[in-house]
Amino acid sequence: MTEVVRSVARNVVLNKSEQTALSTIMENPTITAGQMTELLSKSSRTVQRYLDSLQKKNIINRVGSTKAGHWEIVYRNDE
Questions:
Q1: Residue 29: inside a domain, yes or no?
Q2: CB 50 within 8 A of CB 44
Q3: Least buried of 11, 24, 33, 48, by fewest C-beta within 10 Å?
Q4: Does residue 79 lie within any of the structural domains?
């Protein structure tokens, strides 16, 4: 697990699956949900749940289109 993921995990409650999804995005910011589904061996709904949770916690943001966009790590502790 990278130092950034550890830092975020200390300040925001992330389960192991969310940490794995965040690490995956950090390694490849252009990854799509479909690619994450294959890489993590999870259903598309499960991956979408991870992504929705990370977005709701203000950790990631999708920039651009579904296919040509990328993920940004925008960790903000607004609470």
A1: yes
A2: no
A3: 11
A4: no
Domain annotation covers residue 78: no
Q: Read off the tokens for 31.
A: 């990854």
Q: Rounded CA gap, 53 and 75, in Å?
A: 13
Is the pLDDT higher at 2 or at 43?
A: 43
Question: What's the chain's average pLDDT?
Answer: 87
Amino acid, single-letter form, for residue 24: T
Model confidence band, residue 12 (pLDDT cutoffs 50, 70, 90): confident
Residue 63 placed within a domain: yes
Instruction: Copy the structure tokens of residue 19.
Output: 């940490």
Q: What is the CATH number for 13?
A: 1.10.10.10
Q: Is the pLDDT of residue 33 over 90?
A: yes
Q: What is the pLDDT of residues 54-77, one digit of tens each?
A: 999 999 999 999 889 999 998 765
